Request: fold
Amino acid sequence: MSQTKFLLDESDIPTHWYNVVADMPNPPAPALGPDGKPIGPEALMPIFPMSLIEQEVSAERWIPIPEPVREAYRLYRPSPLFRAHRLEAALGTPAKIYYKYEGVSPAGSHKVNTSIPQAYYNQQAGIKRIATETGAGQWGSSMALAGQMFGLEVRVYMVKISYQQKPYRRSMMQTWGAEVFASPSMETNAGRAALAADPNNSGSLGLAISEAVEDAASRADTNYALGSVLNHVLLHQTVIGLEAKKQFEKAGDYPDMIFAPCGGGSNFGGAAFPFFADKAAGKNLRLVAVEPTSCPSLTRGHYAYDFGDTAKLTPLLKMYTLGHDFMPPGIHAGGLRYHGNSALVSQLHHEKLIEALAVPQLATFQAGVAFARAEGIIPAPESSHAIAACIDEALRCKESGEPKTLFFNLSGHGHFDMGSYDRYFAGELEDFAYPEEAIKAALERLPQVA
Amino acid sequence: MSQTKFLLDESDIPTHWYNVVADMPNPPAPALGPDGKPIGPEALMPIFPMSLIEQEVSAERWIPIPEPVREAYRLYRPSPLFRAHRLEAALGTPAKIYYKYEGVSPAGSHKVNTSIPQAYYNQQAGIKRIATETGAGQWGSSMALAGQMFGLEVRVYMVKISYQQKPYRRSMMQTWGAEVFASPSMETNAGRAALAADPNNSGSLGLAISEAVEDAASRADTNYALGSVLNHVLLHQTVIGLEAKKQFEKAGDYPDMIFAPCGGGSNFGGAAFPFFADKAAGKNLRLVAVEPTSCPSLTRGHYAYDFGDTAKLTPLLKMYTLGHDFMPPGIHAGGLRYHGNSALVSQLHHEKLIEALAVPQLATFQAGVAFARAEGIIPAPESSHAIAACIDEALRCKESGEPKTLFFNLSGHGHFDMGSYDRYFAGELEDFAYPEEAIKAALERLPQVA
Reply:
């Protein structure tokens, strides 16, 4: 049998991140301030170091990765590319299935790829403390780990429903020395206001972002860090796709279709953008962002300027959105419960250069279990969105007889999600369809931009 | 900075397991039946396939690894050897610290190294179902995974206190299709008797073994599988040390001291035995088995024939034991809560060819947290025993200025042990010293062997 894993040397860890902006047919729509005018760097300086602000607006194709960041990456990178021989056999498909496994990071997901450089640049800028939010806990634990590595204090506002459902993600952050509060908390104006309006508010990513941004903006020693959505975050994640391209070379193969989960967009951007460079150069290749039907920003949202958070503290980004006050249903893929999406992913989708599809919750768990039984690894519910879409395509290949090469990003393991597997087995999970009226209503609440 | 990880190719997965018996100065003490006479293979045939029984008594130095087993190993092997640069820096030690990381297996520990061949040989022998026990859950999940890979049903008797403390280990086994019962259960005579005597019995590894052995012995389609202690289990685990030796060659280094956790002995045997071959050939090298002070079989137990389980269903093994009816305190390193030890490890210890030391619980958590903050990976509490001993030695090197090369087996991650980290941070954990009277009392209850 041919190889199962395609490994790279530490010297193969990319020396540069890939910036998709350089290969986009149109420049990205600018971020706007509350006055509806494009913001300058000064608008972001209270919460981000200048090096990250420069990356946020850069049009350079290649951005060098600082050596201390590559050094820290070496704890878990390069991550393996697997050929899913056992899954192929279980499905009886002629398709070849590959997956990149980012669960090898100590925090268990791809999020560490950006928490490390964010911690590094903040430390270099003399910042002592980071405030951030977390939904499912993957981002918060990644930031806690990176903060520990670069000597920064970390404060995490964790969406309350996750704080309650996933206490072990909290323990993990604390093991790495971070301070964790359930959001909405009494620590910020945004949190106190939300609790005053509804003491039982179980939180949302948008609200937790408001708390963390407020915390960072109110202290000179503190910056904010975001785990997805922003251009520099997607940039950092391109180590995934860049490594994967080298690994496909080793495998003597190349994907026909790429699937990645899509919430804020960094998972998809990280895996797919380096391949987009080939597509922009004429290669025939389909890039598919997979989202939950319960939170269908790309497939059913509005392409419009909107806030990134509930309290309207962030700049306006042009993106697919369900409305900044959207409260997603309590699905178990907490990392995909975001009202908006990356501006870059949104623009590429709007220009029909990438595709998007939505998968219902039960289908994702069904796919996750099938994958775990074939390949051993128990996937995070977020990752199972890509698995479900990939399995569907592999089964279409079985019908058509096409031996397509399929690739998906296995962005994390499900070791902290076993409670949701339990509920799945007990028949307690359900599918959510996002109601049409809610989509219409969101349109009316979008900020008015000239 | 020099390399962080030393990786091998899939072709470097060992082709043979190493049998330490071939290099022991004296033949192993035989297992005895209830009559006090050495048992023949027929005594084990009701619960083990002949291929494993042959391995149990083999004196051959090298035992070939069947190709389907190597194929299955490829899902996660070869495992990485890490140089702990960050831990060294944090300790300020001149020692060089290396660790082999077995937490890369899908079940999160080294246990899969033996569950895979055990499942394979049983499937080859026409067995349809495996009954086994689990303490902390690492073995049970490893057996569940391997059963799924080779098409066997798996029934797991899980020590009740772990079943309650670690529900997500249960979910993991169920995700891989296994059936899990809290032990003592109403499914067996041994379980029913224990519950009749004490309905609140929270279980022990010895009792769960009794249940699984009884289950296997009573059904023709079912065999038993054990996750440690037995010679064939230690044999399978030698893939750890064999790979590590190749990796040390790549690193241009060789350990002065090796540390591994020791409960039933397979963790230690797997990491240390392949190096013992060099020691037997004259190499100067110290091999250190690390156990909990609360369950100190090697450091304070009796070297005598004893049963492997509470209900006295197993043959008698000559080993360091605290008495087969020993009920260990509820420490969080559930995988080390066993009254006895491997006969091979015991004999080597008795002949002073290896060393043993005991570490109290709080020191292991302190070491585990220090390791997690330096190296990122959150260790299983069992693994933290080896870390604690290794850090102590590294600090001695700091005092003496000796640049020793230290190696430990990081046998698993702690993703399913975050509850015990929580309790550690909350100051709720304590140290247990095993009382001297209990050790004396155990002596009187040991079986009488001529």
